[in-house]
Amino acid sequence: MNICVCMKQVPDTNEIKVDPETHTLIRKGVPSIVNPFDTYAQEVGVRLKEQLGGKLIVLSMGPEQAKEAIKSCLAVGADNGYLISSRSFGGSDTLATSYILSEAIKAVEEKEGLKFDLILCGKQATDGDTAQVGPEIAEHLDLPQITYALDIVEKDGEIQVKREHDSGYDMISTKLPAVVTVVKLPYEPRYPTIKSKMAAKKKEIPVLAEADIPSIKLELCGLNGSPTRVKKTYTPVREKSGVKLAGMEAKDAADQVVKLLEEAKLL
Amino acid sequence: MGNLNDYKNIWVFIETECGKAKNVGYELINAARPLADQKGCPLVAVVIGKDIERVAKDAICYGADSAIIVDGPEYEYYTTDAFTKAMVTLVEKYKPETLMIGATNNGRDMGPRVSCRLKTGLTADCTGIDIDEETGNIAWTRPTFGGNLMAVIMCPEHRPQMGTVRPGVFKKGAYDEGRSGEIVKEEIHVASGEIRTTLVERVNEVAEAVNLEEAEIIVSGGRGVGSAENFKLLEDLAAELGATVGCSRAVVDAGWMPHAHQVGQSGKTVAPKLYFAIGISGAIQHLAGISGSDTVIAVNKDEDAPIFEVADYGIVGNLNEVVPALTAAFQARKA
Questions:
Q1: Interval B55-69 mean pLDDT
Q2: ipTM of the complex
Q3: B165: CATH
């Protein structure tokens, strides 16, 4: 089974702080990581590859520094990685991004001399949180999609996907090729070894720009290909001046809060 | 894309399963009602499913002016292929200016597939919908960067303007039995060969459906609760108050509670009257999911926990003592 994992390098949103004076994000010094949901996509992909054979290739669109994230995927089981990067791709919203990725997928198939059976993405990236790029890649390539996967198993040339729903899961099957977006797995992604890290470090990461993707239409890339526009951004203000009870016996504090709720007619 | 002025009306997709509507559809009717009034355009509920005429009537009673329904056995359970085809066919025929979809798993599966086929813009997971005064476009507000940043997005030159909206952000309107409106039936059928996925089995893991989005009182626990067993303390308090039990992401990651109970950016958005945050430090991702709460009561042993910045009432103390004391205090009040 040949597998393509679409991965995004994101800032670690747990580390982002808001400047209390200017109310803007402090991005300086925030580490870049592989989007956590993509690490699950990568792990389930590697397991399928180990079980069934084939190649696993990681694609990422982003700036030069995203090569680091690709290398960390190579260190945990990906065979090859490509960085998709060009000035003309900057400013892309999800429609343009998914278009570029879908064209890049075709170009990589050509270069590697294979056809992908399965295209895996994380459910969403933790910076944009849109969950749109996976389904849109499926649409551009006219493939079936299964989103919110909790696990994927292969069965008689098809896949069965455990898909999350509100009170449990659905087992959904589809023929290949297909696109699957992954939420979580019953197991954790593997760690690299020193040896695999060293090997990944040495590996060349080819960069694909528009010249390397023959079929790409530039008018569908970047800002030109993006129907949405960001009008403005702001940081949410959440300060409240509440009552805080400290240093009291539990019972007294509890009674006090219930009394206050009652007085405020909140019960 | 044709002429933008050809696109009229506001549409709300009402998601159904086995003939039953998800609440977020009705919430969106209520959210879209003032926008339709402001624009002076009809508000149309779009229902795709099986045996859904009742749902279309209810959507009108909740505030829609009319409804379009696509009814058929192929829509009993959601599939990407059938629902995308039905929705795209309807949009191409009627040309709505705006299309709102609940940001459920299925809504977020169908939304991008539809917007991509129509080559238009989709804003994901909105928490606010307004009309931009200058242009008349919809201004979609959404949290991004894990809730650290709010972004206002517009789709100026493509139609329909599409957005998915988080369940629980808006409240359902009053049900007015006297309201009536036209219900148009569209025959759109999808051959089984065109549906490329098959539902093999549905497994319900949670004994009863957890309905955090509509709960009036929520007792939520975080990492500070310490163990799955210790959630008993919160369940007792919840039972006393008739509340629903929620939790933070850390609790789900630790395997103490199923994901269905998770509140926050990657869980549910809630808007209860009372929200008890027990042993929850208040990571911004969690706060993003509770900002619609009327009153927040926090219990935490760390005096500097960020949850106290958003709490109306806070108790600094050991939750193992404070929570049973709260349960007892509420009990005493009833007696």
A1: 98
A2: 0.92
A3: 3.40.50.620
